[in-house]
Amino acid sequence: MDQQQIASLVKQTGFMPLFTHTDETVCRNVLKASYDAGVRLFEFTNRNANSFDIFIALRKYCNDRLPGMVLGIGTIKNAQQAEQFIHAGADFLISPLILEEIQHVAAAHKKLWIPGCATASEIGLAEHWGIDTVKIFPAKQLGGPPFIKAVKAVFPTMRFMATGGVEPTEEDIGNWFKGGVTAVGIGSQLFPADWLANNQYALVSDHIKKIIGHIEKARA
Length: 220
Fold this sequence. Notes:
With about 220 residues, the chain is α/β, with parallel strands linked by helices.
């Protein structure tokens, strides 16, 4: 998929699971459980010393075993990281910040980059660069759905993905979409540590299916 097709997929699904772990087997199992639940868009987060090696293994696993899975990399904080993971096969990039050097790399490689924004000025900068999808982070701490509603009034054509503090409940997800988000990103609450420790990946799949249902209901 090209960058526009992936951006459309973000809009279509309304959901971005995000996950990181130092154990390759756990990561593969989480990807498979997500895939089995219907997920075709996934952010692996670059937060550990071995994240690059894990990502290479997950890229191969998706290519070999999970056809159609679009695998991106999150927590990209500079141009060097962007280049490194693009060459490793990242389908898209997500950042907790907005930085011109990352924009240049993403544009040169024609890769979708979703920068993290926390102010109207940062959203406006993204809009100025021609970016139409941004991550609002940390969304709950910034004010939650009322913050989204306020900035959406100023940037009506911008697509917002709320990440940080989104609860995997029907009520909370409904409130985010009422506020004006295009998508939500959910991480730790999507993959409870005790389920992973006990190899309860069927519970993970069922949990994700319920969240997908909450999103579908919120957007109906």
